[in-house]
Amino acid sequence: MHYRDAATDDKRQAKMRTLARDVLGGKLLLGNFLPEQLEALLEQWGQPRYRAQQLLQGYLAERRFDLRTITTLPGALRQRCAEAFIALPLELSSMKHATDGTVKMLVRLLDGAQVEMVRIPREMQSGRSRRTLCISTQAGCPLGCVFCATATLKLQRNLETAEIVGQFLLAEQVLGERITNVVFMGMGEPLLNYEAVTAAIRLMTWGTQPLVTPRHITLSTAGIVPAIARLAEEPISVKLAISLHATTDELRRRLMPIARRWSIAELLDAAEYYYRVTKRDITYEYILFDRLNDSEADARRLVRIARRVPSKVNVIPFHPIDFTHPSGLAAELRPASGERLKAFVEMLRRAGIPTMVRSSSGIDIAAACGQLALAELKTSR
Ligand code: SF4
User: Fold this and answer.
1) Angle at Cα 77 formed by Cα 71 and Cα 81, nearest 5°?
2) Nearest to 50 by CA among 166, 207, 235
3) Does 113 sit in the ligand 1 pocket, CB within 6 Å?
4) Fewest CB atoms less than 10 Å from the CB: which of 111, 173, 253, 379?
5) Ligand 1 pocket mutation pick from 137, 148, 243, 285 by most atoms within 8 angstroms of CB
6) Residue 189 Cβ contacting ligand 1 at under 6 Å
7) Closest atom of ligand 1 relative to the 148 alpha carbon
């Protein structure tokens, strides 16, 4: 497993550029422009730089996707923007509501690739209602975690910044509500699409009326160690969640091929560095599998891990992916019993580790990572 294969990456980017030319018909994706890039472009058009701020204000803060309605811009410029840019480069393909309030949305991108996003049921936090959207950063995923449906799709391509921000804008439009929190925990590994994801974070937090504040953004990674250190240095710091799922290298390598590249010790060094630089607590995600990672010894090791810097643990009951016909270790994975789950969580809590049990939201509509897209692809074949 290579963290980054430059040749493959270059080829993929070249393919993307060709694709972009073909599907965009010469238009530009507005959401691919950072404020300074938009200023430079508008300057080339002979416009003062502040017009870029007005354009972004209309597009992001006021959610005006018909750019001709941004009336702070002069009429001719509005028209030119509408002709030059695509504001929302994705559309809803299907939407499913679960009984627990989860909404799962499958989204089609301009080249036909499909990704999914999930609105997690409302939660109350500090007296305010939290509406969280889980968004995707890649179509498919190259990392091949054995318990994950997205892994079956392999990597199709990285998403553009505009497609990442676009998921937020589209979700608000179709749900008819404002989203307050974002988690980068949908399809794909966000830190393998680093530039686009960090640019999306900049755009989402831009201006005096940001789409979402940095405090309310969580990035979840399978553990791309050098990229975690790099993320720590970014001017906008987000919450970091690490998909751990095992407390020994031996098991983690079996569950998550990426663990063959970096050990748990290296991952924890990166998490500690992230905490030291950003002062933000770390979250460990831990899917509980029956008699695989749910023993007392696992709980004790997890406590040691979570004590290293201020951290919390999300324990997630496993839900089998029954339509993927898993083989090998994947076929043996079973959910831990309610009793074992309770005992595991108790051990963590007794040791003083803030621990939440996170349900795999909307299991009745296949809301686990990648399952809706996979189900859709299988039925359309
Ligand atoms: S769990 Fe996440 S990182 Fe692992 S294969 Fe699935 S999408 Fe990729």
Assistant:
1) 95
2) 207
3) no
4) 379
5) 148
6) yes
7) 6
How is domain 90-380 classified at the CATH fold level? TIM Barrel (3.20.20)
- As a whole number of angstroms, the distance between CA 221 and CA 83 comes to 38
So where are the chain's domains? 6-86, 90-380
- CB 67 less than 6 A from any atom of ligand 1: no
Q: In this predicted model, which residue has the larger pLDDT, 148 or 105? A: 105
Residue nearest to atom 7 of ligand 1 (CA): 188
6-86 is classed CATH 1.10.150.530: yes
Residue 330's pLDDT is 85
Q: Kindly state the helix (H) or strand (E) to which residue 104 belongs, with its residue range.
A: strand 103-109
pLDDT confidence bin for 16, thresholds 50/70/90 = low
156 pLDDT more than 90: yes
Give pLDDT, residue 152.
82
Atom of ligand 1 nearest to the CA of 222: 3
Three-state SS for 95?
Answer: strand
- Catalytic amino acids? 116, 369
pLDDT of 157 strictly over 60: yes
Buried b vs exposed e over 349-377: b needs ≥16 C-beta within 10 Å? eeeebebeeeebbbbebbbbbbbbbbbbe
Rounded Cα distance between 295 and 297, Å, is 5
State the distance from the centre of ligand 1 to the C-alpha of 187, rounded, in angstroms. Answer: 7
The reply to whether ligand 1 has any atom less than 6 angstroms from the CB of 151 is: yes
**pLDDT for residue 278 is more than 80:** yes
pLDDT at residue 324, rounded to an integer: 60
As a dihedral over the C-alpha atoms of residue 351, residue 259, residue 185, residue 217, rounded to 10 degrees, the angle is 60
What pLDDT score does 145 carry? 92
Across the chain, mean pLDDT equals 89
Rounded to the nearest angstrom, the distance between the alpha carbon of 40 and the centre of ligand 1 is 37
Strand (E) positions, 159-231? 181-184, 217-221
Region 311-340: mean pLDDT is 84
Whose Cα sits closest to atom 6 in ligand 1?
A: 148
Task: Report the interhelical angle of 194-204 vs 161-175 (nearest 10°).
Answer: 50
Of residues 351 and 324, more confidence is placed in 351
- 111 — pLDDT class (breaks 50, 70, 90): very high
What is the residue with the minimal CA distance to atom 4 of ligand 1?
A: 145
